[in-house]
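Reviewer 2 asked us to include a model.

Predict the structure of this chain.
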Amino acid sequence: MAEGKDVKEFNGRPYILEESITGEFAIVKAWKADRYGNLVFRHTAMNFNPMAATAGKITVAEVEEIVEPGELEPSQIHTPGIFINRVIKGSFEKRIERVTTRD
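Predicted model (structure tokens):
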């Protein structure tokens, strides 16, 4: 498995060095962003979107809301704007279940 690859030893264990996975494009959905591309995710979007945003050569973020710079608390930001190339405000249909009863 390690034939032709760099092998480094750390704490007595050999490790094979591989290049990271990088895609041409990464498209992620976030809850909020500012004009500089700093992103805040909600709910299950926090599972893989922050990592996917850093793995693309060009990253496009579709967000529900774009706020002015400085409105997001630095501790809230999940992905810094240095990884984001474009921010697009999407239009989302919020489906809500309705309770129906008989007369």
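The mean pLDDT is 90. Residues 23-89 form one domain. We have added this to the supplementary material.
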